[in-house]
Amino acid sequence: MKTYLECIPCFVRHSLDVGRITGADEKTQEILMREVLINLSKIDMSKPPPYTAKHIHFLIRKITGNPDPYKEIKIRHNKLALKIYPKLKSMVKKASDPLNSAMRLAMAGNVIDLGVKNNITEEEIEKSITKGLSQPFIGDFQLFKKEIENSKNILYLADNAGEIVFDKIFIEEIGPEKITLAVRGGPIINDATIYDAKFCNLDTIVSVIDNGSDAPGTILEYCKKEFLDIFWNSDLVIAKGQGNFESLSNVEHNIFFLFKAKCNVIANHANVEVGSYVLTRPIKKNK
Amino acid sequence: MKTYLECIPCFVRHSLDVGRITGADEKTQEILMREVLINLSKIDMSKPPPYTAKHIHFLIRKITGNPDPYKEIKIRHNKLALKIYPKLKSMVKKASDPLNSAMRLAMAGNVIDLGVKNNITEEEIEKSITKGLSQPFIGDFQLFKKEIENSKNILYLADNAGEIVFDKIFIEEIGPEKITLAVRGGPIINDATIYDAKFCNLDTIVSVIDNGSDAPGTILEYCKKEFLDIFWNSDLVIAKGQGNFESLSNVEHNIFFLFKAKCNVIANHANVEVGSYVLTRPIKKNK
């Protein structure tokens, strides 16, 4: 997906938010904002938003000196999600269709992306999950189920820290033996890295790889060869979150995207309403 | 008031919104956004936001070729306000304290700033006004009343088109003979100009002057001498709206600001909650 003009104010707002989170002083934050504005004035609109976000976060790290602004938030989200894991796991076990239930849980876990505020509570996460589970989703679950059953090698692209605990439940239902889990190659926003996958014990059930890139999505031109080999050799790719949808929505491969459409731009691109839970496939034309 | 870092994303969002309103094609809007970003990367944070907004709107006019993007919206707001004028006028006449009631009406009229969406209806405006009238405001009305009574020359700084119809009712209660009404020197957002003052018949009851500047506020360094003479020779200045508060909040003069605090930055600067209706005076220290 290309970058839309609407993404520009969002990048600026996000940079300010991250600048605040780094704890940098006001003067440093001002320098950061000026650099971000210069960078954005040269933005390549033909690239997906995570491409630009990668470059902005490089500036953020360079200017603030903070290599991982969301480190504590990610740990907190992992811990909160691990705490409610047993409850969710038993919920799925009791469900009439555990695979469907686990997929919806993985979808609902995508709300943690919104929870970048440091003070999100266990109750708030549980409430969001319950709400997410009861909300209808847009997509063809039977087709997805068939593809899962027919696939020998599945690549699962994770999205955020915390959220990967919900992915774990879904992965356990699919059958971890045929899955490789890919995470980001370096800290970026609250996206899951190898650290988070290990923290949440994902490495004990599946093979975990990082994609070699610190973009908040999967920008193939930045990913390492080892990852690309697995990507293209997979029978099926399950891609979580907006960032992966933004980066791969026009890639011709057997991909299913699972995400919550959190903004107008993504919702329009996926042809759904804002707030929808979506299970969708790559879009042929380069919108 | 200086510009805060929080204002930067707001400028970017606003530029996109105005670009859309001009009806310029996507390519032109992209050029505009890039120019705005370059301009903002050099922003003078020591100046109030309307100073920067003036320069951004110069770019908008230059790049889109549209000299007055809000022209139709302003006419529509003027007409809507004129339509409900008789009802509001009779409401004030019947009030136990007509001056207080008229002032609250003028404050409530400041919501029209939010109504830059083209499809605001008469009902919506009426609803906002009624709500505004019933909401408590922060400020010393008795002191304000005393200053009004003691003043021989009052300068009334208008804010938006449409809103000036509500100002008219307040001006009629104060006594138009001692008032000069100042409007912006050129089209900027939905701010009132001479055209709007005449459209709403303000010129039939008071002397109307433009301030010589097309900033969405009152940036004294850009205002014309004729206006500045009236400004400094006035016993009292009544300044409507956020833009005038932003530009004059640190000016040492007998000013009363009347506005609705619509964003965090302004609310913090005025030391009130967002959404408050405020009657306040200049802030001594240069915050």
Keywords for this entry:
homodimer, 287 residues, alpha/beta, Rossmann fold, seven-stranded mixed β-sheet, 12 helices, 52% helix
CATH architecture identity of the largest domain in chain A: 3-Layer(aba) Sandwich
- State the total count of DSSP E strands of chain A: 7
Structural class of chain A: alpha/beta
**What is the residue-averaged pLDDT of chain A?**
93
Assess the beta-strand content of chain A as a share of residues. Answer: 5-15%
Structural summary, described in words:
The structure is a homodimer of 287-residue chains. The mean pLDDT of chain A is 93. Chain A is globular. A seven-stranded mixed beta sheet of chain A has the order 1-7-6-5-2-3-4, with helices on both faces. In chain A, helix 9 links the parallel strand 3 (179-183) and strand 4. With 287 residues, chain A is of the alpha/beta class. The first copy, chain A, is built from twelve helices and seven strands. In chain A, 52% of the residues lie in helices and 10% in strands. The first copy, chain A, has helices at residues 7-22, 26-41, 49-64, 71-94, 98-108, 122-134, 141-150, 163-174, 194-199, 225-233, 241-248, 264-270, and strands at residues 137-138, 154-157, 179-183, 207-210, 236-240, 255-260, 277-280. Chain A folds into two domains: 7-64; 72-280, Rossmann fold, CATH 3.40.50.10880.
